[in-house]
Amino acid sequence: MDLTLDAGEREVASAARSLLTAVLSEDALKCVQDAQDPAVLREVMLGIGAGGWLARPGDKQSLFDRMPFFAAAGAALVPGLASTAVGAAVLADQPGLAEVQAGLESGSVLAAVVGEPPGPAASGQASAATAEGMAGGDVRVRGEFPLVEYGAVADVFFLVVPLLAQDGGWLCVLVDSRRHPVTRHARATFGNDFRADLSVDVMLSGSELVLANDQPGALARIRQARAVIEAIRLVECAGGARSVARRTVSYVNTRHQFGKPLSQFQAVKQRAASMLILSEGASLLANAALAQVSAGAGRPAELIWAKSWVPRAYKDVTLSAHQLHGGMGYARESGLFRWSERAKLRQLQLEAGLVRELNQPE
Amino acid sequence: MQFELDERQREWRQELDEFLDKHVTAELQEEIRSLPLHHNRGPHQDAFLAAVVDKGWTALTWPERYGGLGRGAIDLLIASEAFGERGILLPRQFLAGTIIECGTEANKAEWLPGMRTGQIRMVLGYSEPDSGTDLASLRTRAVQDGDEWVISGQKIWNSGAHLATHEWLAVRTNPEVPKRDGISLIIVPIDAPGISIQEITTWGDYRTNLVFFDEVRVPYGNLIGEVNQGWRYITSALEVERVSLGIPVASKHVVDVLSEAVLGAGDCSQADAETIIRIQAEYEVARLLAYRAGSLVDHGYLGSPLPQMSKIFMTELRARVGDTGMDLLGTESLPRHRSNAELGEVEFLYRNAPFLLFGGGANEVLRDILFKLAGARDWAEV
């Protein structure tokens, strides 16, 4: 047990900050975080991919080795596409999907992962879609997928859909929008993450069937991919919380009212101290979850605890930041709202299905 | 960053477990359960303490040259958890840290051996009826008279004074200088003529005391360190001793009891289950904050805000667990502690938790200190 950063981790943190500063210019930040320009989003993803940060876990470095990058990414509000790419690379790690996997790792292919296997842990997402086995081994997948994260820009969709003819059966399929028609209706949403309602009616061949419920280890693989995405996002949340807390401390130390810095008012100082406690705790719990997932645990207690607590702590930090920044933080120009929306969005996403997960057998 | 115990730490934990499995007997646990809080130890507790002293664990973090084992903060936390999981506090005298850090060699020779064996039991005498959080305004006076100090005044919230052998007293030795510059620390035998102790009972069931000093005479050599340096000593106690204050061992059992009672019930609602998951998560956060504080100390990063964060989070968590626990259990939580098997711990925690929110450094004051320390460097980078 040693909860300090070692020299290697400090090097990763430094490299991460350098790369993110280069990739996410102020203009790029605005475009990406306000869902304005998909072309800029692609450039950002290519920049991150070129740094090696999107590689599937365990290939060159473990997931936990990249922890400082994920924290810095959260502070910089890197698009959720990055965490999805790492998790999707776990799903694409099989013969026949080499091109997609290479694209995910380089940042040239943007992915969305939609739906969950049916069962006690499922949140009910994507239940309006079905898969149907056809003659010759093909599968027809059709259905509506509402409010898919990055659905307006993703190139490939990993869809987990129930099998029509088999009670409890499911498939994970790859729908590549460069080969199959996918109807998208872009939506402006809280969080600005390029959401869209999707409509799919496609005939897929064998190479596009990623996993099936009757394959050994299929459920564990889906869970591992999902755990990877969630654990990365938790560390990003903690990085975001730390960034917002630090920014707020700086603000209250420099902003003068009544002839002295705001931080000399005890109520201000104490609220800022509470933000620091929450962000420190969030960082530790998120890192603990990432360490477990990195070691191969599919659904460790630390992950469930972190999902229940870290995004809420992040959200509370952002709301305190708004209070302590006053009007200066409420103006869009300050950009603080972007962290605030990301925090609330992650809370809603990561808390979904928490109790069902707790009760689900391993 | 490493979240698992390494090989050496696992061996340490194993040594602790083997010892505790042997010495924490059913008779000891029954004795602890049956005696009132803050009562003299019974025979089983005496035997247990003697075994702990034999292992040298009462001086776990003291330097070896003073009879300690020279262990670090993480080892102290591991030991605190191992003891705490069995419902027993690791017997320690954290004031020894101040003697080691600030005392003269004569102080160390006189007091440390007895503190190590448990023969000397100190009680903290800081607060006064008019000097609580504003400790530096204390008025109990010590005047030098030849080779003695003559002490007059009163101290409050002296928990354990009726069981202690000595008072660890903060006194004013120079009223002419700014208030923080005129304070000294003096050790006073509790049986010295002129001392009287008045019981104060608390909502949390335990006894604390008001202690009066009426021209009490003690040898000049009972002064700790140098005269008028007391404020510096009070605020510079060994950081390694401070970190274990945040380990939430005492509330872990309550969290387990609550989890079993709520999640184990067939009709547990989703909202209640989510509440329990968050309490479990917060317990883990409290634990990690303590270990982060200890890790920083062991690596020589002193002056971080982590000990304050840890103490604040742990004590506020205890209060939340008591409050939320009673909400979840409803009227099942009403029967008093010890008359309600394990569920009684919840109402006890509700009553007991407020004490640590203002005791041991009021959380509001600690937040002020934390804010200042946090600005000294970017602690996220270490």
Shape of chain A: globular
> In terms of structural class, how would the helical and strand content of chain B be classed?
alpha+beta
| Helix residue percentage of chain B | 40-55%
Taking pLDDT < 50 over at least 5 consecutive residues as the criterion, the unreliable ranges of chain A are none
In terms of quaternary structure, the protein is heterodimer
- The CATH architecture of the largest domain in chain A is Up-down Bundle
H/E element sequence of chain B: HHHHHHEEEEEEEHHHHHHH
Count, helices of chain A: 12
The largest β sheet of chain A comes out as: 4 strands, mixed
CATH class of the largest domain in chain B: Mainly Alpha
Briefly note the CATH topology name of the largest domain in chain A: Butyryl-CoA Dehydrogenase, subunit A, domain 3
Cα Rg of chain B? 21 Å
CATH superfamily of the largest domain in chain B: Butyryl-CoA Dehydrogenase, subunit A, domain 3
Query: What is the CATH third-level topology name of the largest domain in chain B?
Result: Butyryl-CoA Dehydrogenase, subunit A, domain 3
